[in-house]
Automatic annotation (TrEMBL):
PANTHER family: GLYCOSIDE HYDROLASE FAMILY 16 PROTEIN (PTHR10963:SF55), GLYCOSYL HYDROLASE-RELATED (PTHR10963). The lineage of its organism: Bacteria, Pseudomonadati, Pseudomonadota, Alphaproteobacteria, Acetobacterales. Transmembrane segments: none annotated. This is Glycosyl hydrolase family protein. One of its GO terms (biological process) is carbohydrate metabolic process. It comes from the Bacteria. Belongs to the glycosyl hydrolase 16 family. Residues 4-194 form the GH16 domain. One of its GO terms (molecular function) is hydrolase activity, hydrolyzing O-glycosyl compounds. Coiled coil: none annotated. InterPro entries: Beta-glucanase-like (IPR000757), ConA-like_dom_sf (IPR013320), Glycosyl_Hydrlase_16 (IPR050546).
Amino acid sequence: MIGTRALADFYESFDSGVGALHHTWNSDNIQTGGGQLTLEGDSGAMQRPSGADAGNGYGYYEVTANMSADVQGPAVLLWPGNDVWPGPEIDIVEVINGTPYGTLHWNNNGSDAYTSVFFNGVDETQTHTYGVEWSPGKVEWFVDGQSQGAITDRVPEDYAHGGMNETLSVMNRGWEGGWLTVQNVSYTSHDYGW
């Protein structure tokens, strides 16, 4: 079987610091080493959001991570390429009330609106592989290769189809003192024209 790394258009293992996620904030709260990235306090790292074509478009995004239990703040997400929020944002994994979930956000006349898919029975303190498939008209979430659900309403278009790309981001808001450890992130483009 060919691994994710061999197939990916973008792969970051954090063997050399933050690597491709070089747009950071509060770097004193970011530790790297041993092939992983750990965020504590209010900190984050992402691909640079420099315009509608920044980051990546339709495809499969994957992260191997674990995070603090029952604490809001740690998240792995796809942030709008133009760095304007509220906007099209796809959360690969976050936690609320002890349950990890994925969310699709959109701009609703200047306010944030969203729909979520909950990953019931998943222990976010254990290392899992979280994935999201972003395709025309559909966003579907996966944990360890198993579908957790999909959303087909208000799915944004990527840059190649008249919308905006997304930048990979890992962050810990630090609201409740949580943490996030990420072993790798990847993106694999797909041709949805077939």
